[in-house]
Amino acid sequence: MKQKQLHIPGKRLKQYEIVQLIGSGGYCKVYQAVNIQTNENVAIKAVAMSTFKNHGGLVGQLHDTEKQNMKLVNSNYVVRFIDEFQQNKYSYIVMEYCNQGDIEKLWLDNNKHFSEAQTIFYVKQILRGIQDLQKCQVMHRDIKMKNILMHNDQIKLGDLGFSKSKLKFMHLVQQQQSYDIDYWYAWLHGSRSCSIQTILQYGGYFQSRLFDLFNDLWTITFFRLKSLNLFV
Ligand SMILES: Nc1ncnc2c1ncn2[C@@H]1O[C@H](COP(=O)(O)OP(=O)(O)OP(=O)(O)O)[C@@H](O)[C@H]1O
Ligand SMILES: [Mg+2]
């Protein structure tokens, strides 16, 4: 059955009734839905499982990472995980619904401009989100306007697909599973080949909360300059 028919308004997926399409990414569609048992609005991210193997398995990996790391975080400034299920060849993540969508839309609707006061207000909340992620040992790594959502004028960080959990990483280091270690090394140094000895040499980096924070913070600086139209 085509996605169009599966996800039209009024269709039921488990206890969730589709309301409308609210966003899309490279391999996903995001729908607003209502939990008919509780009347709660939710957002449902749908990914066709047939795409999981695309890009050497990256699509499936991002989807799994997003689920796993969302479950680790409990913050008013990060989109909350609610449920997950698979049905009709799709894999679904049910999460908190953000009623103002992403802030890129808000920025575009506002002629690509936020006032300084607005920007400061947003940046403060984004930093709170990053701080809460840090407390849960999660690094976002993909902070951009499309992944920053807004609900009742409050920022919520979304899209944890590219995020990394340090707890999981340290566990892998102990087991010396080199695939993920390569991944971290590639992220740091832009290359996918390294040995366990090399990565352990860089252990100091991973221990450092400051280093993680820096990675997410440079994006915030970019956001601040962009939202104020200081550069395009
Ligand atoms: N919880 C939510 N509430 C409201 N809108 C949402 C929610 N989650 C996602 N969206 C909308 O759907 C869009 C795509 O979601 P998301 O970024 O999670 O998917 P993605 O596949 O990772 O996208 P991309 O590849 O473009 O980063 C968001 O930019 C936003 O507009
Ligand atoms: Mg995204």
TrEMBL record:
Ranges for domain Protein kinase: 16-232
Organism: Paramecium sonneborni
One of the GO BP terms on file: regulation of autophagy
InterPro entries in alphabetical order: Atg1-like, Prot_kinase_dom, Ser/Thr_kinase_AS
Keywords: ATP-binding, Kinase, Nucleotide-binding, Transferase
One cellular-component annotation, GO: membrane
PANTHER family in alphabetical order: NON-SPECIFIC SERINE_THREONINE PROTEIN KINASE, SERINE/THREONINE-PROTEIN KINASE UNC-51-RELATED
The protein, known as: Protein kinase domain-containing protein
A molecular function (GO) term: protein serine/threonine kinase activity
